[in-house]
Amino acid sequence: MEAAMFAKSEKFWNPLLETLPKEKIRELQVKKFRRIMKWAFEHSKFHHQLYKHVGMEPGDIKTMEDIAQVPKVEKGMMRGIQKKDPYPYGDMLCVPLENVSEFRQTSGTTGQPVYQPDTWQDWEWWAEAWAYILYSQGYRKSDRVFIPFGYNIFVAFWAGHYGAEKLGCEVVPGGVLNTEARLLKMQELKATATMATPTYILSMADTARKKLGIDPAKDLNVRKITCAGEPGASIPATKKRMEEAWGAKVYDHIGATEIGAWSYECEEQPGGLHVNEGLFLVQIEDVETGEIIETPNKRGKMVITAFDRLAQPCIRFDSKDIIMWHEQECPCGRTFRMIKGGVVGRADDITKVKGVLLAPTAIEEAVRGVPELGDEYEVTVTKKGDTDDISLKVELQTEAEDLKEEVLAKLIDQLRLKTNLRYNISFHPYGSLPRYDVKAKRFKDLRKAH
Amino acid sequence: MDTISDIKELGKMIADIETTAKGLIEKSQGIQAIERNAERILASTAMLKINVNDLID
Fold first, then answer.
1. A354-379 burial string, b = 16+ CB within 10 Å, else e?
2. How large is the ipTM?
3. Kind of pairing between the strands at A260-264 and A249-256
4. Which residues contact A243 (CB under 8 A, 6 or more apart)?
5. Is residue A333 within 8 Å of A11, Cβ to Cβ?
6. Cβ of B43 and A121 within 8 Å?
7. B53: closest CA of chain A, how far (Å)
8. Taking a C-beta distance cutoff of 8 angstroms, is the pair A319, A313 a contact?
9. Cβ separation A28–B55 shorter than 8 A
10. Contact call for A16 and B55, based on CB within 8 A
11. 3-state secondary structure at position A135
C-alpha cells in the first residue's frame, strides 16, 4: 500500500501532481524523460539517428545531468525532414500515418511553417494540459466561455476549447463572426470568460467602446480572460490596460504548436507562470556557455521536453524563448516551479541597438505604460551611416490631442527607463496604425536588409 | 495535507479499464462502432495514467 499526500483543495485540477514534493517531481521527470526518449528512439528514424550519432541510448538516462547531454532539436531540423514520406511529416513521425487524427502547423513567424501531427490520444493530452491551465485560473463548470478565434489551421485556442469542455464549461465557438458580432453575442449570452491574444483583447475593447457604445467592464459579464500567442499578459502595463478595459482578471498562458501548453499563470497572479512539471521538463540554458541555469533571475534559453506527446515527440526542443526562474514559491500551494514575467524575449529577436541589448517587449511596456497613448505602436530599426536609428510611431488617444508635449515627455522618460535608448518618436492619428487580430508584428529590424 | 491511502488501488482500477478496452477491441471482430469508441476510451485512460499511474513506483 502506498499513501499519497496531497493538499485537498478545490483549487487544483490534480493535487496529486500539482503538490508533489519537488524531489519527487524531479524523480518523475527523469523517469518520464527516459520513457519518451525510448519511445522516440524505437519509433522515429530521425530520433534514432540523432541519439545513435552521439552514442546515447535511453537506458543511459539516470539523472538530470544525463538529460542535459541529450542532443537538442531545433525547428530548422524539423523543417529539413518534413514534406517527405510518411508525407508530409517525414522521419520524425512515431506512429502509423493512419493513426494521425489532427493536423496543425506553426504560424511561420520565424520561417517556413512546421507541420504538427497528433493522434487522438495526443489531442486528449492537449486538452488535459489546458485543463490544468483553466482550472488554475478559476474556470469551472458554471462558466460560459466565448472563444473569438478563427478555428483554422493554427492550434491556438482549439485546445483551449477542448480543455474548457473537459472542465465541463459551456463553450461558445465564435468562429467566423466579425468582432462586432462576437461582442454582441458575448453580451447576449452573458459569457463569463474568453480567450484571445492580448492584441485582440485590446482591439475588441476598442471596437466595443467606439463602434458599439459598449463598455466591456460594465456592459459585459466577462470576468476571466486567458491570453496566449503574445507576451502581453505578462507585461504589467498591457495586463493593466486589458484588466481595466474589461473589468476582468487577465491570465497568461504559454504554449506552442510543436511543444504543447506548458505554462500558466494561476489565480494568485504572483508575477510569474507555473511550468506544468508533470507534463513537461523545462531546462534553462545559458546562451553563451550552454550550462543549465538553476538560479533565479538569470535569463537563459528554454530547452523543453513534452513527456507524453507521441505522434511527433518534442524532446529537448530548443525553443529560443528567453525565460528565467522565479525566486519565490507561489502562495497557491503548487510545487511546480515558476518562471518570472513569462517569456521575456526570444534568442533570435533580442537584438543589439546602438550597443544596447533591446527586447521588443520592453518597448511595449513603455508605450502601454502611458495611458494617453493608444494600444498600437510600430518600431523600425534602420542604419543611418554607421549609426542605428530607431523610429517609434505611436497614436494619441483622441481625448489627449492637446497634451502632445506632456505625453511626449512622459514617453521619452518611460523608454529611457525601460530600454536605455533614444527614439525618433512620431505621433499619428488615432486608428491609423495597423491593427492585428492574431500575432502582431510591431517590431521591424531593417538593418540586415541594408 | 490530506492523503489518498491507496493510490495503487486507483492505479489498478485504471489498468483494469485499459485491459477491458483492449479486450473490447480484440473481440470486436472489426466492428468499427466498438473498435473506435474503445480506442477513445484508451486515449482517456492514458490521461488517467498520466495523472495517477505515473506517480506509482
1. eeeebbbbbbbbbbbbbebbbbbbbb
2. 0.95
3. antiparallel
4. A249, A250
5. yes
6. yes
7. 11
8. no
9. yes
10. yes
11. helix
- Cα–Cα dist A283/A29, whole Å: 12
Q: How far is CA B41 from CA A13, A207, A389, B34, in A?
A: 20, 44, 59, 11
For residue A282 the three cell numbers come to 523545462
Domain presence at residue A124: no
Closest CA to A94 of A63, A62, A118: A118
- Looking at the domain assignment, is residue A370 inside a domain? yes
Domain count, chain A: 1
CATH number of the structural domain spanning residue A435: 3.30.300.30
Cα(A64)–Cα(A31) distance, integer angstroms: 10
Q: Which three cell numbers stand for residue A50?
A: 540523432
pLDDT digits (tens, 9 = 90+) for A193-213: 999 999 999 999 999 999 999
| Residue A311 placed within a domain | no
Give Dmax (Cα) for chain A: 74
CA A303 to chain B, closest CA, distance in angstroms equals 22
Amino acid code (one letter) for A158: W
Question: How crowded is residue A207: how many other Cβ atoms within 10 Å of its Cβ?
Answer: 19
Residue type, A305: T
**pLDDT tens, A74-114?**
988 998 899 899 999 999 999 999 999 999 998 776 678 89
Residues of chain A with pLDDT > 90, as a percent, come to 76
Burial class (CB in 10 A: 0-12, 13-18, 19+), B28: middle
Tell me how many degrees the CA angle A39-A42-A48 measures, rounded to the nearest 5: 105
Whether residue A373 lies inside any domain: the answer is yes
**Size of chain B, expressed as the number of residues it contains:** 57
Q: Residue A103 belongs to what H/E stretch?
A: strand A102-105
DSSP lists the bridge partners of residue B26 as none
Quote helix, strand, coil % in chain A, to nearest 5: 35, 25, 40
Q: Which of A8, A125, A128 lies closest to B2 in CB terms?
A: A8
Under a CB-based contact definition with an 8 Å cutoff, are residues A439 and A398 in contact? no
A87 touches B: beta carbon within 8 Å: no
Segment holding A239, helix H or strand E: helix A236-246
How far apart are the C-alpha atoms of A7 and A14, rounded to whole Å?
10
| Number of DSSP helices (H) and strands (E) in chain B, helices first | 2, 1
Chain B residues in contact with A119 by the CB 8 A cut-off are 43
**Phi, psi angle pair for A350, to nearest 5°:** -80, 120
Specify the residue for cell string 539523472.
A63
Structural domain span for residue A416: 351-449
Of A2, A7, A123, Cβ closest to residue B7: A2
| Cα–Cα nearest to A129, from B40, B42, B51, B56 | B51
Cell output for B32: 468499427
- Hey, what's the cell of B30? 472489426
Q: Is B7 on the interface with A (CB under 8 A)?
A: yes
More confident residue, A40 or B57: A40
The label of the residue with cell 550519432 reads: A53
